[in-house]
Each structure stands twice: as structure tokens, then as C-alpha cells.
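Format is sequence with structure; example below:
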Amino acid sequence: MTQNVRHTSAQLLPYLLAFCLTFWVFASHGQAADSESLPEDVALALGTLIDRAQDKDPVTIQNLRPLLDFAQKTAPLRDDWEVPTLHNATGAYYGYTIATPVERIVEHIYHPELPPSLFHPSVVRVGKWFEQPEENIPQLWEKLEEGQVKVIRWEELEENTPDVNTGGYYTYQTDRMIILVAHEGKKYLLSVSKQQEESSVGRKGVVIGDDQDWNYFYTDEEGLTTGGLGWVNSYMFDSFSVTVLSADPAAPEHSRHVMFKWVRAGWSGMNMVRPSHVRNGCKRFAQSLVWLMESDRLPELDALVAMSTRVLAMDEQEALTTLRPYIENLRDLSSEDSVLSRRSFQRILNQDNPLEHYSLYAKQSLVMKEFLKASVGLPALLAVNLDDVLVSFLR
């Protein structure tokens, strides 16, 4: 048993009060003034879909109709909707538009030869299938006919990026259900996820600089990075979501993405999550997806497939050799960062291989993320382009 566990209640009380106060402040800030309770039939439809993700029962148009109508007609009327608690988890809503057609988003995000997390670099560190689905989702979408409901299921392993408030990051398994439906002349893609079990214990990570630059560092040390809470054994007890992607009713050449998400996380069985935390997490998800999908510098699909195929073929030594310039740039950057400049992080960064605890897939994912950043004009810590990937790495 570690020394951290032997804190007395009196010793822990100031930290707990400070932490809860911090969460209360974040929860009170930025709440939409025009929020309204979610319609009851929509809430029931959401609960049914979450259940279907795990019990594998059939999904019918009757299950979907309230949610489809809401996404197309009602959701855009307000900036925010109050989402009821479900399975003791805290819920939130976020809706936004992407200035590109739905078809383009579907063919990128669900391309069978691209990693499932490639276009979500702000929220997912690594994501992969346990077994790749046999169905080709972009092809199913293209051939979808009126009244059809297509359901595709698989299991994923996900590890998220560090939380912007606490620095904690978590690994967990999810059931994923994709629903393609053509209803009243419109096509919809619904993505439903449900965490299978409690996550791994939270580990200390760092959001480096502006979160919108997608720069993160991960340690193997359990706890939270926030000062005074390094001892906390935190967990994501549960999380689940339902999203609806469709053409924007106000501009059909653009896309509308409606998100509902629930999270139950904390420690000692206590849920520390507030609706504003969940909504801000949805905004974080949206930021990177919008940036990539709206960029006129995003490489063509063939180039992305070639890049990911090459990077995923790297072994440990090749991946580490590729990331050496990244490590040096990270060290240079760390002295100016308020968190990375701490002695505990400097000890890790000054090791010969500060990425030693990164899995091979995490290293490969990092190379792919840096490639995307450089491609779309974000400051990259690894100056890598398509020629580097396809030519230089083939030596």
C-alpha cells in the first residue's frame, strides 16, 4: 500500500473541498442561458439506443423516429438542451455544423483502411478495433434506400487525451453501434457507444499549451496532474453517447452533428462530473473534426491511406527513430510550459527514451497525428510530410 493511501480524512478534506469547488466553478461557467429540457420521447429514444448497443436487440425505425425528427427540426432551435441523468451518469448536449457534405465525412471517418480515431486527435489518444467490422460503411451509406435501417457493431479499445482540468487520462473498452437510416427522403448516420466496464485507473498526462494545438504528454504514473491531487485513484466508471450526423437543414451542402454524451467519473464511487464538463468535452471533439474536415489542406484519401499503412507497418525501433526529433522539440518546449517544467516531468523528459512507456500503437498514432497537424497547418512537433512517410521511412 502506498503512502498516498494512508492520508487521514482530516488531511484530505482541504484537497477534496478545493477540488469540488474547482469543479463547481467550471460547472457554473459558460452554461447556455436558453437551455430547455429535452423532449421526453427523445430522452426515451436515447435510452433505448444505449441499451441496444449492449443487448444487441434489433433497432427499428420506431426506435429512431423521435430522435431523427429532433435532430432535423427541433435541435437547431436552441444552443443547448438539458439532458437527463441516465444510469447515474451526467449528460449534456452539443450541436454544431461542419462546412462539408455528409458523404465526405462518412468516407473519411469510416474508411475501412484508416484507424477509427484518426480524425479525433483532440479527444482520443489511441483507438482501435478488437476485430475490424466486415461491412464497408461508406459503401452502405452510398447505396442506402428509403426506409432502410442498417446496423453495424464492433468493439473498440480507446484511450483518451488528458482532461483539460485534471490532466488525467483513461483506457477503456466500448461497444460501438453504427446505424445508417434513410427516413423521409433524408439520410442519417447514428453512432452509439457504451463503455463496457470501469476504466483503468487514471494516469497523469499533460495538455501542452493551447488544447487546440493537440499537443499532449503521457506518463505511466497513476493519479491526477492537478496540484494536490496526485494521490487520487480516479476512474471513468461509465460513459456512453449517441450522435446523429445528417445534412444541415439550413444548408444541405453542409453537415449537422448532434451529440448527446454521458459520463460518470471520479473516485471512491463519487461522480465528480457536471454537465458543463461533458458539454466542453463535446466541444473539444467538435473542434478537431471541424478543423480537419473543413481544411482545404487535408490530404486526399489515397494519401491518408498510404500514410497510415506505412506508419502502422513500423516496428518499435523505426517508430522511435522517427520520433527522435519530436522528443527533442518536446524537451525544448517543456521549459516554457507551466506543467512540463515541473521536476517530476523533467525527470521523465531527460531520460534517454521518455516515450519508453508508450505502446507501439501509441507511437504510431503520434506519428499519424503529427502528420495531420503539419498537413492542415497546425504547429507540429514532428515536421513530417507525405514524402517523409512514403520515401524516407522506406530506407
